[in-house]
Amino acid sequence: MPYYQTTLTLPAHSRGIHIITHLIEDAIDELIPHTSQAGLVHLFLQHTSASLAINENADPDVRLDTEDWLNKIAPADQPEYRHTLEGSDDLPAHFKSMMLGVSLTVPLINGRLGLGTWQGVYLCEHRNLVSKQGGQRKLVITVNT
Q: Does pLDDT of 3 surpass 90?
């Protein structure tokens, strides 16, 4: 079973949750032979202050409510935080990244991501882009067919 791999540079996104399914599917289309129909797609985000998730892709309120919920669990500007050198949003961003994770494995079905009807891949950007640390993110896509 051959492996194919590429690193996708995601454009800078504002803080929040963004659907990136189409970017991943475009990269897979360019990466694997069109005869490849089944396999596994592994996604790995090379960052510690952003994360990946799969959730509903239809109602944008899901993304807004999820962002609000994450901010309640890991709020910024807490006086007990020691790691503040990179900004008051940095340590909460690390917490959120640890909770959600930086990798996903999705089946490849008929040459496409095998997501459900209402599922999409989220980039969860936990930093404010006005900070020095936000910006483009690197996503390693590995496909085993």
A: yes
| The dihedral sign for the CA sequence 57, 61, 64, 69 | negative
Closest C-alpha among 25, 21, 23, 103 to residue 56: 21
Sign of the CA dihedral with 3 first, then 18, 54, and 72 last: positive
Whether pTM > 0.85 for this model: the answer is yes
**Residue 144 identity (one-letter amino acid):** N
Which residues does residue 122 pair with via DSSP β-bridges, in sequence order? 19, 53
What CA–CA distance (Å, rounded) separates 89 from 74?
A: 9
Type of residue numbered 132:
K
- In sequence order, the 6+-apart residues with CB closer than 8 A to the CB of 77 are 88
Residues 6+ apart with CB under 8 A from 55: 62, 63, 66, 119, 120, 122
Distance CA 123, CA 121 (A): 7
Q: What is the pLDDT of residues 123-141, one digit of tens each?
A: 999 998 654 555 799 999 9
Q: Where are the alpha helices (DSSP H) in 8-124?
A: 21-31, 60-73, 90-100
